[in-house]
Each structure stands twice: as structure tokens, then as C-alpha cells.
Write the C-alpha cells for this entry.
Amino acid sequence: MIRANDPSLKSWVTVSADSEFPIQNLPFGIVQLPGKPPRVASAIGDFVIDLYRLWELGLLTGLDLNRECLENRCLNDFINRGKSTTRAVRDRLSELLDAEVTRWNSREWRDQFLHPKTEVDLLLPVKVTDYTDFYSSIEHATNVGTMFRGPENALMPNWRHLPVGYHGRASSIVVSGTPIRRPYGQQKPAEPGGSPAYGPSRLMDFELEMAFIVGRSTQMGDRVRVDEAEDYIFGLALFNDWSARDIQAWEYVPLGPFLGKNFGSTLSPWIVSLDALEPFRVVGPEQDPAVLPYLQSNGAKNYDLHLEVAIAPEGGEAFTVCRSNFKYMYWNMCQQLAHQTVNGCNITVGDLYASGTISGPTPDAYGSMLEISWRGSRPIRLPDGSERKFIADGDTVILRGYGERDGIRIGFGDAVGKILPAHEQG
């Protein structure tokens, strides 16, 4: 077992019982301290751990690390060192922070590499080299298909045979806390044969998703097999794939999502390693009919991660509108990566692959406002008395997620975005 995963470990750092960042997590991200360049960091409790400073102090000796890797604006170089290195770093951190080892708990040492989260800026953790968004929740796909095509044709003929996906825009993926501007675009004509409307989207939506980050590159022509896919996956984060439903509805035939999606997506600030998520593995849903051999997946490849979404109106309290779980995914990450590469498509360290909206089997587990309000026909009421069919200007959407077992909670940090009004156009 990886030392850092030992459930009996305790840290000399004070960590509350409900913290998402116990010593068994130790995720990776990029932070900026006042007056300092960005650097690689980890997290424990309410503190960030400055890995660059630990390296300067000689506490990371013997590991495959250097200044350029750790004093960096993204994790890509660090991830590219391979899982042997990132595992060794987590294990070294667990040794330094172990409650049984008090040497580093003096003010002289701890203040050099441990900083309150409130005193640092959390930056986008990776330089996203490419971005693919999947459509892998059967509950979500069935709900959307039922709305637009009726229950008899809810799933397209290909859906149960391959993980449907599209290539999105990497440049507009932003870290949690970055506001999102309501986009302009064309919308469907009000009458058949009429001209399309143009203006700010009226149907802004969130999409509750998880994302995995690629940690190993391939060459063009290479394929990643299902049974080796986890060797290429570094870790997971929360992901909100914001959607302008009215723009999307007009443009998506015949080539799929475009301007209705690429104006902004929100990523949580910490990448949690697959190693840290090992205790939450579960077997996914049975796939019927049987999939083609290159997609056949054995064992526990899904993860029992509790997910929720809250909406906070301007000046108001947050109200939870969705509780779902990553374990519901019909197509797992290994199948997604195998399908992405089966044609020889090369992948790169820093690639981001999003799950698609994660909906559960009941209405309280639907992962988008499109489903929650059922295309606007069932508005929800917030605590301030206002109603929502979709997301209003000034609303802040908060995604949360964690796994919990034996009293240990492993989480990602919130993925938060506030919708700003559209820029006025001439």
C-alpha cells in the first residue's frame, strides 16, 4: 500500500473532522504567495504546502525534482515526471506531516513551507493542452433525449456502443472563482422559416461533471488499451461545463456543440491523484448490450464520489439544487480514454477529459438546470423567494465533491463561478 493512503495516519497539522484535505489526500495544485512566482503545492486541512520551498530546504532530496519543475505556473512538468515521482512526493509529504514525527512542527520550520489558504491565490492547476467532453451518464442522456425526441427515441442508436464525445475549447477553461460572462450568440427562430434571433443567452446552465487529467503522452498512431488506461490518468478534479442552451439548440446540428459551450468552463483548483481515490472504487453499471472488445472493462473502474451543486443568488444564501454521484457513470474513464485513442489519436500530458453531465436516477440527482427544471417547465424556488428555470445574472454556482470512507473524507475544493451580465453590443 502507498504510505500516504494509510487510513491510520494522523498529522501534526490541525485538520477538522469534516475537512476534504486530510493527510490521506495530499492533492496537487499551483499557488501564488504574495511577492513570489507561482509554484507547485499540496494541501492539508486549511493550509497549503509549498513544495518548492520544501525542495529548497532539502526536504525533497532523492526525488526527481528541480527548480524548473516546482517553480512553475502549471503542474504539467511535475506530472510528466511520472507516477513513480508523484507517488514518492505524496509519501514524503506524509512522512514530514506525520503526527509521530515532531521535528518539522516547530515555528522555525513550519512557517517556511506551510501557509494558510486564505493567504495564497489558487491558480489554474494545469496548462490544458487539449480538451474532450464526453456524454457518458445514461440518466442525463435519457433525460435530454426524452425532452427533445420523446421517450421512445431518448438514446441515439450509437449511445450504448461507444462513449459519445466532442472536442471543446481548452483556452476558456478557468480556475474556480473566475467569473463567467453571459455569452452572446444566435438562437433558434421563433417561427419556422424565420430568421434566427441574436443576443445574450437566455438559458444559461451549469453541468455537473468530473474531469481527469492525462499524465502520460503517446505518439500519433498509438492506442491506449482499457486495461492500461489508468497508467495514463494522473488525477481528477471537479468541472462545470457551462452551457448556453438556446445557443446550443440552434447550432448543434449537424456537428455538435460549439459557441453554446466554449465561452467558459470552471475547474476546481486541486488535482486529486487516482492513488488517493483508491478507497472509493466501485463497479459501474452493467452495460447492455455487450460492448466491443476494445471497450470491455473489468473490475471496479467507477468511483463512489458524492457530488452536489448549490446556487447562491446575488447577496443571498446558497441553496443545494442537486445531489448526485460519480458512480452512476455508464462509461468509465478507462473506456473513454481507450475510445479517444482507438483511431491513433495522440494524447499529451495536461489533456483534460470531462465526464459529461453526471445525473442520477431521481430528480434530486439531475446534474443540470435543463433537467432540474425540465426544460423550464418546473422552476425551482430559492430561499429568497425567487424562482429559477436557468441561471440568472449575479448567481454563483458552487460544485462540491468528495469521497468518504471510515471517517476519512477526500475532496477537491469547490468549483465556483459567478455569472456576470453580457457585455452590451452595438
Notes: The first strand starts at residue 29 and ends at 32. The CA atoms of residues 177 and 416 lie 5 Å apart. The chain has nine helices and 27 strands.
